Amino acid sequence: MPVNEKNRVAFISVLAAIFLTSFKLIVGLLTGSLGILSEALHSALDLVAAVITWFAVRLSDKPADKDHHYGHGKIENLSALIETLLLLITCVWIIYEALNRLISGETHLEVTVWSYVVVISSIIVDISRSRALKRMAVKHNSQALEADALHFSTDVWSSMVVLFGLIGAQFGFFMADSIAALLVACIVIYVSYQLGKRSINVLLDRVPDSVSSQIQDEMNHVEGIKYFHDLKVRSSGADIFVEVNIHVPPGMTTEEAHEIATAVEKQLSLKIPRAHVHVHIEPEAHVD
Asked: What is the arrangement of strands in the sheet containing 275-283, beginning at the earlier edge strand?
């Protein structure tokens, strides 16, 4: 079942986040690397985010009930917004510690083989999880899984930055570690902005223009519609809810008009996965 598939990939991401957080924290404390410690904190918040995502995908596919007529899909969007806030918290700590070390001059750290092992391992795991989550996010139209994928892909880039910082420290340029940490923060801020913007847009029922344009294009392919208006589209998790008024030729029977409305519903559902379409029919006025 799709739900089990989503749960499985989300749960594996939780396990991956636990492994990365523990590994980075141990190596970071042993070497004193701010870059690795910042990565450990980043992964710790990713762990929280992964747990939130896991619960979100479990709850979001629950069917509509008497208290939630449009289902529980927005739990995914809310979890994505929470993940954004967690990322921003990460940035505050990273920037504070990096600037403090640069100003105080306490930038010395011990670079060992384990420093490279933890960073390279992190990159490999993050690439694997990011691809798996992204694939499932596209398949199930899940913003929660997509947000989790962005978390892991962010870790890939930030780990690359930390790797360059370690290389610089290896050659005596110890400030490279703190500078790398600041670059990690910049990456996280950028991703946080993207995540937050998308999550808030969905929570405020703003649908991407591409979706509305696609619906209008599909409507134009349905025979029997004179014209349509008052198109309203909203998303909730993986579901898209569409309301539209259509005008049909005058003199049509109820059955004929109903067939056109059904054709609209089938056409949109075929092109837009998990679309829930409500069509209001109006007869076109006679022209004398």
From this structure: 227-236, 239-248, 275-283
